[in-house]
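Reference record
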Amino acid sequence: MMKSKKEIRKFKDLFITLTWILISFQSAVSQKWNKGQKYDVAAFYWPDFHYDPRLEFIFTDKVGEWQTIYNARPKDFVERQPRVPLWGYQDESDPKVMDKEINAAVTHGINVFIFDWYWYDDKPLLESCLDSGFLKANHNRMKFYIMWANHDATSYWDPKDVMKNQVYWTGRVDTAVFHTIVTRMINKYFNQPSYYKVDGKPVFSIYELNNFIKGLGGVKAAKRALDYFREKVATAGFPGLYLQAILWSAIPDSLSADSLDINSQDEVLQYFGFNSFTNYTWAHLVGPAGDYDKWANAATAYWKKYSNFSIPYFPDVSVGWDNNPRYPPSVKTGYITNPTPNKFKTYLIKVKQYVDDHPNQPRLITINAWNEWSEGSYLEPDTLYKMAYLDAVKEVFGKKQ
């Protein structure tokens, strides 16, 4: 006997309610490990330290970007290269390796990984780190969420060809491909009990808003795409989508070219309905060169401006910067000197104070990065400082807080 539309709708509503109750219960259970820690400390995770067949033309040693790291050499008498990982050149797609990383993170006050996530030529790239490593490890001890790194894949990753500025794959997607990505996010990741949520809403971060707009064919089409994303997340049983932007020059200063009276990055973020924003690295704000303190002070001076935006700003702290390993021996780029753990700790204290001074928003801060070895910004232990950067995080944000 065929049910009426009213009965079908009633059943659907009941199903969504029960799904949301189950998700909330799973989320609460998985958060037990976090009892006693008041802050969410999220480290960006660059997932290219494992073999991905699509990148073998760059990393012929089949170890991902570790090849770039152990081949690095100093460009002058001051630069410290190569950086040598204390744990060795491990495969992050191995759940045993990821267990070790997760344990080091959660015991030092880092309770969230933000995974850089890529989609090129109608398929994902570097996803094995998350799928085979993190999700098959004992990952319920911490949270994770995804930053869609929708920039073009270029020869910036390839030291032998970096100066060619060659585009291997574009990061732009059209509407149909974006709908595929939405489905993948909801079905594969958002339903994970360890997926990071704010008020039950899964957090999803977009790295390059400009590229997103261009791929979708314009501002209004991009807005419709994000509205579609929200609709699908709600249909899946969540109370909504928590959309986060990465703020730098990839977010336009205005949308006046599209006959819209929008004349600031703040208004742009409001137009698209972003819930919050953060930075990926201080290098996006201030040219990286010279002493760490000078660079850090210039970057954190932006916090006051960003705190006046209409949506919450989650401040970032960078460990350091030196992307010379990605360039040939004849090319030297600007890098940060004296990025010591003690100096890093100074700015962790400042970012904690910022969060305390903004009690009406989630207690989230971001750190660049867990493992940006090729850019000289990593919390993972090396042979010089060992666990000192992680110890700094623990001293400021550990469970004693």
Q: What stands out?
A: Residues 5-30 form the longest helix (26 residues). The longest strand covers residues 112-120.
